[in-house]
Amino acid sequence: MISCRATLEVQGEGQIGQIAEYVQLATSQTVERVALEYPAILEGYAESAATGAEALKQLISKQAKECPNQKIVLMGYSQGAQVVGDAISGGGYGQMGELIPGMSAELIDRITAVVLMGDPRHMACEEYHHGTARKEDGDGVFPRSPEQMAILNSYKNKISSYCNRKDALCAVGGRGNLGGHYDTISLFVTPAKEWLLEMIDGPEQELPGVPDELEVTQ
């Protein structure tokens, strides 16, 4: 499980790491938790995000080669969410500068699940969004290109993105503020970790032939 921290969070998993901790305790599978090393700075933001996306692509490529049967899970909050999305679909475009290619389809197929929280590149047309932001709340501050969105939407079954409609960074038309951005983790941590656990372990299975309640007759 690779966690990508938010802007200005100290090196480590950051707030998004609490989801990794929950899954590690809840699953019977062996979980290795990794914090992506990247600048996560505000000044020079575009370069910071690009550096993070490149570092993530290299890390996933390395893991895929060394552990071919390992499930890979990606999680990112704020700038970390952008880093994850850029690594998959490609970075750059608009204020983010020149287009940068994402990882190969073969490498993306190695990824089991992706959680994005408060993504500044959130788009109203996302088919994998499960937050409270609505289409009329608009896109994030750094929208993606149509081509980038097409790539991400093609993997909608393995991505779950959460944008608070009061978040001024991921839904600029929702009349939100930074407080709404900071509330993202607390608002969506429960549905995110439950979805992620199901993606890793599969849905809970009932034993065949055993009813939920047994009728006792005398």
How would the blueprint of this fold be written?
Layout: E1 2-4, H1 17-26, E2 34-35, H2 45-66, E3 72-77, H3 79-89, H4 105-108, E4 111-117, H5 146-153, E5 159-162, H6 178-182, H7 184-201
Parallel strand pairs: 1-2, 1-3, 3-4, 4-5
Helix pairs in contact: 1-7, 2-3, 3-5
Which features characterize this protein?
218 residues; Cutinase; Rossmann fold; 5-stranded parallel sheet; 5 strands; 36% helix; hydrolase; disordered C terminus; alpha/beta
Brief summary:
This protein is α/β, with parallel strands linked by helices and 218 residues long. The protein has helices spanning 17-26, 45-66, 79-89, 105-108, 146-153, 178-182, 184-201; strands at residues 2-4, 34-35, 72-77, 111-117, 159-162.
CATH topology: Rossmann fold
Number of domains: 1
Specify the structural class: alpha/beta
**What's the CATH architecture?**
3-Layer(aba) Sandwich
Describe the main β-sheet briefly. Answer: 5 strands, parallel
Whole-number radius of gyration? 18 Å
Q: Write down the secondary-structure element order.
A: EHEHEHHEHEHH
Count of helical regions: 7
Low-confidence stretches: 205-218
| Amount of beta strand | 5-15%
Q: Which strand order spans the largest sheet, edge to edge or round the barrel?
A: 2-1-3-4-5
What's the CATH superfamily, by name?
Alpha/Beta hydrolase fold, catalytic domain
CATH class: Alpha Beta
> Count of DSSP E strands?
5
Q: What helical percentage do the residues reach?
A: 25-40%
Mean pLDDT, all residues: 91
